[in-house]
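@here heads up, posting the sequence + SMILES for the zinc ion run so it's all in one place. Ping me if the SMILES looks off, I pulled it from an old spreadsheet.
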Amino acid sequence: MASRTSWAAGWFFRVNVNPPMLGIGIKKAHDTSKDIKENGTFSVNIPSADMVDRVDYCGLVSGEMLISPGSSRSCCGDLGEVFELLMITGNVNTLGSVSKMQVPKIMRAMVLEKTGEPLKHLIVPVPKPNPDQILIKIHACGVCRTDLHIVDGELTNPKLPLIPGHEIVGTVVHMGEHVKNFQLDEKIGTPWLGYTDGTCRYCRSGRENLCDHALFTGYTIDGGYAEYTVADHRYCFRVPDGYSDIEAAPLMCAGLIGYRSYRMAVAESEAERLGIYGFGAAAHIITQVAVFMRKKVYAFTRPGDIEAQEFARRLGAIWAGESSSQPPEKLDAAIIFAPVGSLVPIALSRVAKGGTIVCGGIHMSDIPSFAYNLLWEERVVRSVTNLTREDGWKFLEIAPKVPVRTEVQTFPLEEANEALDSLRRGRIQGVAVLTMGS
Ligand SMILES: [Zn+2]
Ligand SMILES: [Zn+2]
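bot reply: prediction finished. Complex structure tokens:
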């Protein structure tokens, strides 16, 4: 396979076409074998003259082709067309971006085209920010259980095609004209709540998490399984000092929504004994917060998951056992992070009078019927839905004080399917985080 390297103006693309094939169209390449650089077009470096078919059409016979953009801004649309055409007939394997100053027009992304199918590693246009948005160069994106529910089709009506991911940490590379509260190159986090209308009865009563017209990152708008994303600045967070990008990513959902669940379960009551069912991403963060706030944490894991039980004890849980186990004392509250409805009556039977059960996930299997006496004595079962910005501000203020440390397992962006599968099989201790490699 031919191999050449060429780049210009601080960024480059390296495209492998495999298997070799005929008839890949390249629009507006006006010359043949040499680099072309013209106003309004792009430069194309093609290894061999006999790969060129005719003036505005190239047939790539075999091997590797390298394309580098010219300096003109208007070239970029043309370049997008090139990649569009390449994507139809070839596999685009690698793409590098090396400039801080210059934002490329296309990027790598893991794209959900149809639920129930693996994500595809594609080259797509870098999104353009509107006046309220920030263009973020993504460094890390956490893989949340919600992503799994979206990919598997358990959450209905996602935007399709969709770039999933809502635990995004990156840097500000471009800002819309209304953005005043962030600066270029600042580290920024983007959570699940991507937009609210600010006018509906929920927004007006301080419950924007229930907004009638909310948009959600990585669900109804594109998210962070990509090299770049745009986000409305009003819903972004500053990343607290002392966290690497990879460590900070899980704070953006497991931390934020976990904290809302925690607050609903104990923070506003006298609850001291907190049960946590499902010891994954959110639980490992919230255990640290709870211990910091002098709560006693009882961790419940799936049967036989000794590793998760040890993990919970290591993080400060005073007791850890299987989900069906009887804790040594009655609980005051419990959070169920596992998407398992049958845990609801079990948890209810473990809480004392007046105890609260908070279902912290966005999706759960059906809850079996249970005797009323499990609910009697003012026990409460409730869910937590989304987050408010206030949840985020409060949590991100507390996190560095604890300090919350996140345990992460990293995967390169293109292995998002493997990360999701590991999560599906319960093989992630802590949080899976995708890294973008630049
Ligand atoms: Zn609203
Ligand atoms: Zn999430």
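MO: Residues 1-101 have pLDDT under 50 and may be disordered.
MO: One more: The first strand starts at residue 11 and ends at 16.
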